[in-house]
Specification:
This protein is α/β, with parallel strands linked by helices and 193 residues long. It is built from 5 helices and 8 strands; from the N terminus they run ββαβααβααββββ. It has helices at 48-55, 66-75, 90-105, 120-134, 140-160; strands at residues 25-31, 35-42, 59-62, 114-117, 164-172, 175-176, 183-185, 188-189. Strands 1, 2, 3, 4, 5 and 8 form a 6-stranded mixed beta sheet that branches. A two-stranded antiparallel sheet has the order 6-7. Mean pLDDT is 77; it is low at 1-23.
């Protein structure tokens, strides 16, 4: 998971930001004043994964770990924590965080300061696919409500484990009216609903 020195991009200078703020949006919320929940979203190849890696040193990676490991090798030299098997959906991530919380209660805390998906849009897609298989014959809103509950359960598990969350997501482009003048949907993180 390391890149040869000849292929590594040069580190940015202190005066040049890695990610122009106009290209990546950030949503950040302090949960109860103690735990951070953050989400970077934007177009492809704009530095969302690099932001993810540079935000926390002891970072637990959910989703495909390959891009995160490459970014960590390039930018920090600190390897993130990767589960033995890739965790691709919200329910598996929730179970993992509940296990981390249980270890913490036993007095055997893991050296994790934060966790998150690279890419949260794909994790929600995977969860929604599972929900579509489980909730057959019902309307679309039952699956949307179940997805919302899965997201909230995931966040609750992270709070119980006293772990900050930081994710990145694909960008859902704004949707305009047919004449192109009126914004119908302003855009934001892409979700499967």
């Amino acid at each position: 998971n390391t890149m040869p020195p000849s292929q590594k991009p040069e580190a940015p200078s202190a005066s040049a930001p890695v990610i122009p703020s106009s290209m990546v949006a950030r949503i950040a919320v302090l949960s109860g004043g103690r735990h951070f929940t953050g989400l970077d979203y934007g177009p492809l190849r704009k530095g969302k994964t690099s932001n993810l890696v540079k935000s926390f040193l002891r970072f637990l990676v959910f989703g495909d770990p390959t891009p995160v490991l490459q970014a960590a090798d390039t930018w920090t030299g600190v390897e993130p924590i990767v589960p033995r098997r890739a965790i691709l959906n919200l329910r598996d991530a929730t179970a993992y965080l509940l296990a981390v919380a249980a270890k913490k209660k036993e007095g055997k805390p893991l050296p994790i300061t934060a966790a998150g998906f690279d890419d949260f849009s794909l994790a929600c897609d995977e969860e929604y696919i599972l929900l579509c298989d489980e909730i057959r014959g019902k309307n679309h809103y039952d699956r949307v409500n179940a997805l919302r509950d899965a997201i909230l359960d995931y966040r609750r598990a992270a709070r119980n484990a006293e772990i900050d969350l930081h994710h990145n997501a694909h960008l859902a482009e704004p949707i305009f009216s047919k004449d192109g003048k009126k914004v119908i949907y302003p855009g934001g993180p892409r979700m499967p609903i």
